[in-house]
Amino acid sequence: MNNSRFKKIIVFLTVMCLTCLSFDVPLFVKDSYVYAADDKFEEQMNKEGFPESYKPYLREMHAQHPSWVFKAKKTGLSWNDVMEGEKNIPGRVNNLIYGSYYYPHYNWRSTSVGYNWSIDSYSPYDGSVWYAASDDILAYYLDPRTYLDEEFVFAFETLDYQKGYQNINGIEAILEDSFMYNTTPAELFKRMLGSDVASSRPAMQGDDKKFSQIILEAAEAYGVSAYHLASRIRLEMGSSAGVASLGNSTSYNGIYNYFNIGAFDSSVGEAVLNGLRFAAGSGSYGRPWDSVYKAIMGGAAYLAEDFISEGQNTIYTQKFNVTNKYCLFYNQYMSNIQAPATEASLEYDAYVSKRLIDSSFVFEIPVYSDMPESAVVKPADSGSPNNWLDSLSVSGYNLSPGFSGDNTDYTVAVPDSVTSINVSADTVNSSASFTGTGSIDIGSGEKTITIEVTAENGNVRKYNLTIKRDNNVTANQGGSNNGGDGTPLDTTHRGDLNGDGKINALDIIFVQRLIVGMDPLTDEKKALADINGDGKVNALDIIFIQRHIVGLEKIVWN
Fold first, then answer.
1. CA distances in angstroms from 435 to 339, 408, 440, 449, listed in the order given
2. Which end of the chain, N or C, is less packed with Cβ atoms under 10 Å?
3. What residues have CB less than 8 Å from 166, skipping those under 6 apart?
4. 49 versus 170: which is more confidently predicted?
């Protein structure tokens, strides 16, 4: 895709939380085709209104598969509007990325939500391995041009059932290497739960039918692509059977959910349980889903009624809702930002294996106004983005304001006689590097020193230290990076931990540092931080400062 357009997904990481698959994309060079000038196809692209940047990819696919039909889905949305609508913000996290110990993908994780710069910590949004996706990786997977090769273009395949083209053999090709391959629910229960447990369960409708047959019946009943249903189930369930597929949850025994519908994200990893709670309900889609057959049929009905009939008729638009005008950017089936590419690859493989790849597929490809001139480049996935300092100090003199990693501008006052200072610093992330410290010649007069921090991923952050002259300042007034402007802190100003004459979010950070032991709890600092006067510095004092900041309660200075 993009500079490496011809890639093949060969590794699937099965994960149970959203039970979507995440993958890394190794290079796989496919056959290239020479596009012969085709006036009719050029006219068709112009009539559809495809941007010029789409056309090279469409021409190559047309050369490979002349029977394929490409339609432009004119969304009426600008690229910036779509990015703003889809990007993760506090209180709205729609796009997740997989990150494990071995595949952390730090540079694909958001630092706008779910990340604490000061301690270099990410908060997962489902279980322990799904994190908010960064704006850069979102832009890559949101850009339709990312998918414009013969494999990943199936993210835009219209999801109607194609009788005659879609069959049992093609479904089995998608299910191969999964627990559903060439087997029935009854056989699965016996294999996974044991003969005694399986025989004690009541026989349910469809238990003696192969999974592929049930999927085909659901496709025929609701007019949804059989290969899409098989790919979606394969993606949601993974290769190994879990409680949603075996119906053996202790909380919802005998309930199944093969599409993970209702399995919304949870930081404690309860997505699957949330999905089973939905499946156990009633009133729509044939619920409760107390058999595999009902779960697959009901899931197909859900997809047909809530997505496909509402204009979300491709894998892409089920992930990124840019077509259903009544709920733009909501009603999105999956959180995994890589899901459209993964599902597209599964369907492509099924068509290739059954020699159906040259069928007359129809692809609806979204078009946005004001798009970048060229396709978005996939960002590097490795390397921490943290370029914050954890400490900054000048030996013998105090910074103003007191140091806090989120603030990049400081001053320090020294006498006229001082011609050099010693600057020390440390980074939050040990892989980051920095310059501008050590013994610094400051000459005479004022001078600004820049400490430049480079994160592991190459991002740079600059801290500016301005040297001012003040002959009333003497050295060795603490040397602390939490001081003021060279004078002792006024302990009558409770809540003003950094001595800048204000109570704000910076002071909360200083109290937090005192609580966790990052800064020494001197008598002076204790007098400032013990807001409620109970003789301790703890979270209650932070609450009092917060209430002061928002105007609920005032901290009165003596």
1. 41, 15, 12, 10
2. C
3. 216, 219, 225, 226, 227
4. 49
Task: Report yes or no: 39 and 64 within 8 Å, Cβ to Cβ.
Answer: no
**Tokens for 147?**
């998918």
The angle formed by the CA atoms of residues 253, 259 and 265, to the nearest 5 degrees, is: 85
Q: Which sign does the torsion angle of CA 73, 79, 82, 86 carry? A: positive
* Residue 51: closest CA among 376, 378, 377, 373: 373
Q: Where are the beta strands (DSSP E) in 415-490?
A: 420-427, 433-435, 438-441, 447-454, 460-469
- Torsion angle in degrees (nearest 10) through CA of 424, 428, 432, 436: -20
For residue 489, is it left (φ>0), alpha (ψ between -120 and 50) or beta?
beta
Tokens 């892409």 correspond to 316
Q: What is the 3-state secondary structure (H, E, C) of 391-417?
A: EEEECCECEECCCCCCCCEEEEEECCC
The answer to whether 8 and 149 have CB atoms below 8 angstroms apart is no
Give the C-alpha separation, 535 to 129, whole Å.
Answer: 41
- Looking up tokens 């799904």 gives 130
Q: How far is the C-alpha of 83 from the C-alpha of 80, rounded, in Å?
A: 5
Give me the domains of the chain, ranges plus CATH numbers: 39-146+311-369 (no CATH), 168-308 (no CATH), 389-469 (2.60.40), 491-557 (1.10.1330.10)
Give 315-325 pLDDT, tens digit per residue: 999 999 999 88
* pTM score, whole prediction: 0.70
Q: What are phi and psi of 421, to 5 degrees?
A: -135, 160
DSSP string for 242-273: -HHHH-B-SSSBT---TT-TT----TTS-HHH
For the record, the structure tokens of 140 come out as: 């890559």
Query: What element of type H or E holds 79?
Result: helix 79-86
497-504 long-range CB contacts below 8 Å, 24 or more apart?
497/402, 497/525, 497/528, 497/529, 498/401, 498/402, 498/404, 499/400, 499/401, 499/402, 500/400, 500/401, 500/402, 503/545, 503/548, 503/549, 503/555, 504/549
CA distance 413 to 474: 9
Amino acid at 377: V
Separation of alpha carbons 529 and 537, rounded Å: 6
Q: Do 423 and 417 form a contact (C-beta atoms < 8 A)?
A: no
Strand partners, 407: none
pLDDT digits (tens, 9 = 90+) for 186-241: 999 999 999 998 888 888 999 999 999 999 999 999 999 999 899 889 988 987 89
